[in-house]
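[recover] target loaded
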């Protein structure tokens, strides 16, 4: 769960950084998208890098989901379906944050969002406003234009879910990998989890908001 989660976080950081090219103009954004398809040619075939990334991502998503179901059933067997993390310090005797409570359903919502997102920007099956299929920059401009405000709303809601999922996921991954050794370590883990999640989600939010508000036009 931890390793596949970290692989996907790596993808999100790169994807978010790539999206910021929208602020450098159409040429920069379109040539970044073209580079993804031509990278390392002729060592790799056309779209070779893109397909390697797609396979790594799909395998990571499947293993992440399989781990989630395995942990879910192990957890149910261990507690008899009862409460977890009993603690005298937390209110109601539980040490569970909003992020940890929403981790499972948040994961399901994010999976649905990724399907929506691929139908929107990769397969062009969802294309409000008759999205053109010629250049990626135009697709993003039309995708988040004020007439299609509901698309931006779906992205914002999904990204907020992703923020909580990442915050608790990063914390849990660091625990699994052995970092949770003291109170001081937990404080550092909390800072890392919040900073990485806010940088990723904040960076992603910039594109739809900038297009919707006309900062990028
Ligand atoms: C507002 C934020 C986002 C924007 C503006 C955005 C934009 C895009 C665009 C334009 C593409 C097509 C790229 C191309 O064909 O050259 C794409 C593909 C993709 N995005 Fe996003 N994205 C965002 C957030 C996300 C998030 C949060 C995830 C994952 C949780 C994600 C996962 C993907 C995936 C898996 C692909 C398909 C790559 C492929 O197989 O071609 N994106 N995105």
């Amino acid at each position: 769960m931890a390793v596949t989660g970290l692989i996907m976080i790596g993808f999100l950081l790169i994807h978010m950084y790539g999206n910021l090219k929208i602020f450098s103009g159409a040429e920069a954004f379109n040539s970044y998208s073209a580079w993804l398809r031509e990278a390392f040619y002729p060592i790799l075939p056309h779209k070779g890098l893109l397909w390697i990334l797609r396979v790594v991502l799909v395998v990571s998503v499947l293993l992440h989901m399989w781990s989630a179901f395995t942990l879910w059933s192990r957890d149910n067997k261990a507690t008899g379906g009862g409460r977890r993390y009993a603690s005298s310090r937390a209110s109601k005797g539980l040490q569970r944050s909003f992020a940890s409570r929403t981790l499972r359903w948040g994961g399901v919502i994010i999976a649905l969002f990724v399907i929506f997102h691929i139908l929107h920007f990769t397969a062009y099956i969802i294309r409000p406003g008759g999205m053109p299929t010629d250049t990626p920059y135009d697709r993003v401009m039309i995708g988040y234009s004020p007439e299609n405000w509901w698309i931006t709303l779906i992205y914002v809601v999904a990204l907020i879910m992703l923020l909580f999922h990442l915050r608790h996921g990063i914390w849990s991954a660091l625990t699994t990998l052995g970092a949770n050794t003291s109170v001081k370590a937990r404080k550092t883990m909390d800072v890392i989890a919040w900073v990485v999640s806010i940088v990723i989600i904040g960076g992603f939010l910039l594109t739809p908001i900038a297009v919707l508000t006309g900062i990028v036009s």
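[recover] notes: The chain has a mean pLDDT of 91.
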